[in-house]
Design brief:
Blueprint lengths: L6 E3 L3 H12 L4 E4 L4 E6 L3 H11 L8 E3 L3 H5 L6 H10 L4 E6 L8 H4 L4 E5 L4 H10 L3 E2 L14 H8 L5 E3 L11 E4 L6 E4 L5 H8 L4 E2 L23 E3 L10 E4 L10 E4 L6 H15 L6 E4 L8 H12 L3
Parallel strand pairs: 1-8, 2-8, 4-6, 5-9, 10-11, 12-15, 13-14, 13-15
Antiparallel strand pairs: 2-3, 3-7, 4-7, 5-6, 9-10
Helix pairs in contact: 1-6
Bound molecules: threonylcarbamoyladenylate and magnesium ion.
Length: about 325
């Protein structure tokens, strides 16, 4: 791993142009999207994309999302079924990633798609992401901007904590609004399947589709069709105890709604008023905050599973998984 001097950029026009130039020249730049911060590289440049895997310490087989400035540009990369097109028109720009067959004109490098014949595409809804993508003028491969296996970054400071000295620049666009990663849908063939719950809720998607989502990939076998969905992921160092009534002495407490945490060594509350959107936005930052060296376990209050709660519960279950 060669040391890189990491530039800390603001979100003013000249900084954004600079970020675009660094990316176009094959560099690694972290920038905010409305979900989490991404670690971007020119998706058409295999060497640049390889740098992402190196900086994150990410296993090679895990494919990346290609980000584009518009649906029109995305059409050049993937083949959209009628259902995929309806979803793109309804929710892009937004916290939705669509896995579609590669188009013949697809320029995303093999290393970004991990050799699959499908490609994951997303048009993010964030002015800074949009400006960076416009400045590069090519698809930008971007996983979440954290070291592999750590929780995702929702502020520029989180990115710096994980990746300073390993990437070329960080564009600071403030805290991200949604706080959990995009919902990933596979649109291969006729069915639409949920590969990862995320910032766009199942009910909103099913409203637009007019039918229920399938679960998991087509012909799901041992094939790593959403290979990023390892059981242990988004993991703090401390153990995570889910659906806890309260913290035991010495534990950290992560609350939702009023109460709890009286015995905790340190506590935080995802949303004192019990709102799931607020909880999603706070999730990764609070996990980082509570994951101190003197904390062996984080007890987490029960979170309801509807709406954004599905994604929150998914991330917490991964954080709690055996590793
Ligand atoms: O909100 C987000 O989605 C953030 C921001 C930066 O866009 N990105 C993100 O990327 O979460 P990442 O790399 O952490 O997660 C991408 C997921 C992985 O689980 C990967 O396996 C899956 O997308 N994926 C990518 N290409 C795929 C494909 N062709 N087929 C199935 N799964 C794919
Ligand atoms: Mg990630």
């Amino acid at each position: 791993m060669t040391y890189r001097n990491t530039l800390h950029l603001g979100a003013d026009p000249s900084s954004l142009a600079k970020a675009g130039r660094i990316l176009a020249e094959g560099g690694l730049v972290s920038f905010p999207t409305e979900t989490v911060y991404g670690l971007g590289a020119d998706a058409t440049n295999g060497r640049a994309v390889a740098g992402i895997y190196e900086a994150k310490g990410r296993p090679r087989f895990n494919p990346l999302i290609a980000h584009l400035a518009s649906f029109e540009l995305a059409r050049g990369q993937g083949v959209f079924s009628p259902a995929a097109e309806r979803l793109a028109l309804a929710f892009w720009p937004g916290p939705l990633t669509l896995v579609v067959p590669k188009a013949p004109s697809c320029t995303v490098s093999e290393i970004a798609t991990a050799g699959l014949d499908s490609v994951a595409l997303r048009v993010p809804d964030h002015p800074v992401a949009h400006a960076v993508l416009e400045a590069v003028g090519r698809p930008v491969a971007a996983p979440s901007a954290n070291r592999s296996g750590h929780v995702s970054a929702t502020t520029a400071a989180h990115v710096a904590a994980d990746l300073d000295g390993r990437i070329d620049a960080i564009v600071d666009g403030g805290a991200t609004q949604v706080g959990v990663e995009s919902t990933i849908l596979s649109c291969l063939g006729d069915r639409v399947a949920m590969l990862r719950p995320g910032g766009l809720s199942r009910d909103m998607i099913e409203d637009v589709l007019g039918f229920a989502l399938a679960e998991g990939p087509e012909g799901a076998g041992d094939e790593p069709v959403a290979p990023g969905m390892l059981a242990s992921h988004y993991a703090p160092r401390a153990h995570v105890r889910l659906d806890a009534e309260d913290a035991e002495p010495g534990e950290a407490w992560l609350g939702f709604g009023p109460g709890g945490g009286g015995q905790a060594r340190i506590s935080a509350n995802l949303s004192p008023s019990g709102e799931l959107t607020e909880a999603a936005a706070n999730l990764f930052g609070m996990l980082r905050l509570l994951d101190r060296a003197d904390i062996h376990a984080i007890a987490v209050a029960p979170i309801p599973g509807e709406g954004l709660g599905e994604a929150i519960r998914d991330r917490l279950a991964r954080a709690a998984a055996e590793r």
